[in-house]
Amino acid sequence: MSALPLPVIGVPACVREFHEMPFHTVSDRYVNCVVSGVGGLPILVPAAGSGVCLDTLLASLDGLLFTGSPSNVEPHHYGGEPSREGTLHDPCRDATVLPLIRAAIAAAVPVFAICRGHQELNVALGGSLHQLVHELPGRIDHRSSRELPRAHRADPRHLVRLTPGGFIARLAGGAAEVMVNSLHAQAIDRVADGLIVEAVAADGTIEGVRVKDAPAFALGVQWHPEARLAEDALSQALFAAFGDATRARAMRRQSAAAGRAA
Prior knowledge:
Layout: E1 8-12, E2 14-18, E3 21-25, H1 28-38, E4 41-45, H2 54-59, E5 63-66, H3 91-106, E6 111-114, H4 116-124, E7 129-130, E8 158-162, H5 167-171, E9 177-180, E10 187-188, E11 195-201, E12 206-211, E13 218-221, H6 233-261
Parallel strand pairs: 1-4, 1-5, 5-6, 6-13
Antiparallel strand pairs: 2-3, 7-10, 8-9, 8-11, 11-12, 12-13
Helix pairs in contact: 1-6, 3-4
C-alpha cells in the first residue's frame, strides 16, 4: 500500500516594505501550522496579482490557507467608504487573493481563511466589511491589547456562539459556545450570498462562515486558531479537518497522475 501523499498547501503572501524594498512575506506561525496542524508542505504564493496564472497554480495545490495580516482589504472592493488616513493596505495581496478565492472554490480546492482571510472570503463572494468594529454602537473592542506582552495577545478574549448543528459546532463536539482570541479591527458587515454563518460573538460580530454547497472544504474564522494550535482542541480540530480535505484532494491528484502515466 502506498503512503498517503503529502498535501501541498498554498499560503498567499503579503507585500511589506523593508529598507525601502518590497518583500513577499508570510508569518512563520502559518507556515508552522501547515506543517504541524495539517501535515502538509507549505508553498508561498507571491502577491503578484494578474501575474499569477490561477489555473496552473490551482492544479498544483491541494489546499489554500488565507492568513491574517496587519493590512486591511481596500474598501473599494466592496463599495465601502475610503479608509481613515494611516490605514495599512496591500493592493497586491487584494489583486491576488480575491480572484484566487473564487477560482479555488470553483475548482474544489480546499480553502481555510483566517482573520483577514475570513474577511477576504466574504468580500470575494460579494459581501462587505465594517472597517472599525469598535466604533459601532454596542460592539466591544476586538483589537489586540498593546498593554499585554506579545506572547499573551492571542490568549482567549471572548465567547462566540456556534450555530447549532453547524460544521464548527460539530468540530467543537456539539458545544454551544467557545472562547476565542481577538486581534482585529475589521469584521464582516453584509454577509455574502452563498455564505452560511457558523459563529457569532455576543455583540453580533460574525466570527465564522462556511461556503454553502462548496464542492470542498471552504471555511473562514475571524479569530486566530493558528496562535493556539498547541493547546486548544478546536484549533486542532479545524486544522485537522482542513488537513483531511487537502489529503483527499492530494490522493485524487495522485490517482489522476497515475492514470495519465499508465
